[in-house]
Amino acid sequence: NWVVWKNGCRRLNLKNRILLRATLSFILLTLLLVSCEKESKILQLELDIAELVCMDGQNIFEGRILDLEGIKTFTANIQTQKAQISYWDNQVSADKIKTHLGEFGFTIDGNPGNEVARGRLPQCCFVPKSHH
Fold it and tell me: Rounded to 5 degrees, what are φ and ψ at 51?
């Protein structure tokens, strides 16, 4: 009877040890992931956007930039035709932001966006700014 009890304990210990190891591994992995998450930096991006000349253009731009994951803050200035964007570098990249906006027809830093999408932007986006 005593032998059966001992073997039962041994088996239980083994199971517990495996479970404990798995739990510790999981905790360690979680800590690693959390610390990697904290490593992410907030980067700044400034873009010249030719179509940022009217409220409609600004509204479309704001809607499109908010489609992206990882944008922290942004400003779109129709006086200067510039957009300042701050973003989490572990969620989105400057290239991804530019590509995304380009797909909606915006001209970024002199590079025209998607032609079909440009055709869908309101006419007021193409009124050249008169610089006094």
Answer: -85, 5
